[in-house]
Design brief:
The protein has seven helices and six strands. By secondary structure, it is α+β, with helices and mostly antiparallel strands. It has a domain of about 160 residues: Muramoyl-pentapeptide Carboxypeptidase, domain 2, CATH 3.30.1380.10.
């Protein structure tokens, strides 16, 4: 009995046996724990991804809102520019146009002091066929005659309205050079005024006058001028200054009649 007892005590402890599925009970329990840990890990990893995706969506929405605001601003700026263009919001512009007030008949027909005869024509007697009309002085004629400048007003008096700026400025320079004022007895004329003077001349009731359309008074490029009570060309100093400045006296026997070339 003693030997049998000793032999039994020498046997190793009982070992768990696999069940019918081949799984050891303890091992199965360990698998459940591993699965739970994996699920927890996956959930923890998914949270930052979801947060990042939401952040991207929010950023895209903000960008879209900004783009809409920029488009609205551009539309507002365009509307403002159109409003300013239509309403004249920019600085006012000037055309440099002269007053078109016409010289009176007394101004046109007034005789020049110191002369026995006063002609109101801008180019002599009747223009011969083929003579260039007054409008051919396009290089000097303005679209509308210019107003006198400050310097012109200082040196030039009389019938200045409607005369071309170039003529007025040259006459002002004549006055400045000789130190005396230049007086315009007859300046710019309308076509109707020239027609009236021509009709008087043809009827023997007026002085020599050119046909309408052939007087440079109509273009504002001619004037009848006195200096110190004498016709401009009868004053040697004034005539010399005028010629040096490019003025000329194209009508013989009319020392008062001066034009720009």
């Amino acid at each position: 009995m003693e030997c049998c007892s000793t032999g039994m005590s020498a046997l190793p402890p009982a070992t768990a046996m696999p069940d019918a599925t081949g799984q050891v009970a303890g091992a199965a329990g360990g698998g459940d724990v591993a699965a739970t840990d994996a699920s927890t890990t996956a959930g923890a990893s998914a949270a930052p991804v979801a947060d990042a995706a939401q952040g991207v969506a929010d950023l895209q929405q903000a960008i879209a809102g900004l783009q809409t605001a920029v488009a609205n601003l551009a539309t507002a700026v365009q509307a403002l520019q159109q409003s300013m263009a239509v309403g004249g919001g920019g600085p006012a512009t000037t055309c440099g146009c002269a007053s078109m007030s016409e010289p009176t008949t007394s101004q046109v027909l007034a005789p020049a002091p110191g002369t026995q005869e006063y002609s109101t024509d801008g180019g002599g007697a009747d223009a011969a066929p083929g003579d260039a009309p007054a409008g051919n002085h396009a290089a000097h004629a303005a679209a509308e005659p210019s107003s006198p400048s400050v310097d012109v007003k200082r040196w030039v008096t009389g019938d200045t309205d409607g005369l071309h700026r170039d003529l007025l400025e040259k006459l002002a320079q004549v006055g400045e050079k000789i130190g005396r004022k230049v007086d315009i007895v007859s300046g710019f004329r309308t076509r109707a005024e020239q027609q009236h003077l021509y009709d008087l001349y043809k009827a023997g009731k007026g002085n020599l006058a050119a046909k309408p359309g052939h007087s440079n008074h109509e273009s504002g490029n001619a004037a009848d001028v006195n200096v110190g009570g004498k016709s401009l060309a009868d004053d040697p100093e004034a005539k010399k200054a005028a010629l040096a400045l490019g003025l000329h006296f194209p009508v013989g026997g009319e020392p008062w009649h001066v034009e720009v070339k």
